[in-house]
Description:
By secondary structure, chain A is mostly helical. Chain A is built from three helices and no strands.
Amino acid sequence: MNPWNTWKxxxxxxxxxxxxxxxxxxxxPLVLGPGGAALxxxxxxxxxxxQGLAQFWAGMGLPTRRDQERMLHAIHQLNSKVIDLEDxxxxxxxxxxxxxxxx
Amino acid sequence: MLTRLKNLATxxxxxxxxxxxxxHAVVHAENKWRLLRYHAxxxxxxxxxxxxxxxxxxxxxxxxxxxxxxxxxxxxVGQGFDVFCVDWGRPDAEDRHVTFDAIADxxxxxxxxxxxxxxxxxxxxxxxxxxxGTLTAIHAALHPERxxxxxxxxxxxxxxxxxxxxxxxxxxxxxxDALVDGFGLMxxxxxxxxxxxLRPTLGLSKAVHLIDRAWNDKFLxxxxxxxxxxxDNVAIPGEFYRTYVRDLYQRDLLRQGRLLAGGRxxxxxxxxxxxxxxxxxxxxxxxxACCAPLLDLAGxxxxxxxxxxxSHVGGMTSSPAAKGLWPQMAGFWMGxxxxxxxx
Lengths: 103, 343
């Protein structure tokens, strides 16, 4: 057996064992609990900061990025509803044509 | 040995093979998502009912059209299918408000409608991969009219069995509302990181495997294409992600028949069309125990399962998949009676 294959077999064994060990840590409440709490805390702080900034700009009478996002989302929703209506119209036209064909 | 060294030394200069290159046209576009229709083979279609491919939202659609010779879409076109694929696109900041209903109910409904209109067929065969499979199962339960058959590949259904992903998402201290309110749009890097954490040594293992097979040009091209796809993650709409994590991962509502979508309760027993469930033997993202319960829950008379040797991605994109799995899927559809009879 060549040295590379021997080394690779050893590596595969090490990798499997290490992955199993890391998985045990990653499932441990001792890791997940503080990790999840830290993530949630950081996200709450970010949301608060964004909210504060938005209030500041709104207080100056300026639209915020969030306002623009809401507006764009509303435009997408309207576009979707227009396509819904077009589909319904096409269905109605198809039904009418079918009825006309049957006399 | 020399070829291996030369290939490794020039890897950074090696051209990435074209991905998502099977000829297609965009037949519908709405917000960021598009519906693609692959050009039919020159000798015409062999199967009347079209096939709609629905990939996950987390990665790009071209995992199903990886690179010429390793493309599931190209394979299906070659078999004479009329193939469509949903490309979910890249959400922008405003898409943080896009809901689970907007995707599972309305977008999939629209895609199926377009597929049927354009193909002139009343129904289509639907394939959902990963999260796309979960969404198609939900849609087929709510709106079975246009679904000729359903094929769910590595699609989580019983989320209580979702392995380490569920352990993380239900861990004490994990607050999905704080996460979504903070991020808005769930960043691709965050999702990528969570996948890497499933097996943190995978990067090293892939590097060793690359050195081992670097003499093989075909392998290198496939590796580069797959790495291109794996690093091309996209963000997920926050509101969608909130429902996905809270109602599916944390509360397991889909299996219990208590999930609400489109204002209706999703009862998987309403799936009556022929059903094929594909699971993979080494799948940390969607373990077989999490996907297979669809067979028990669905009301179909024709239910089949294929358990294929491979991982979540490799199981669907590898050469063994092309030889062993793809023909089984094509056979499943060819065996179905076409809604309008044979062409």
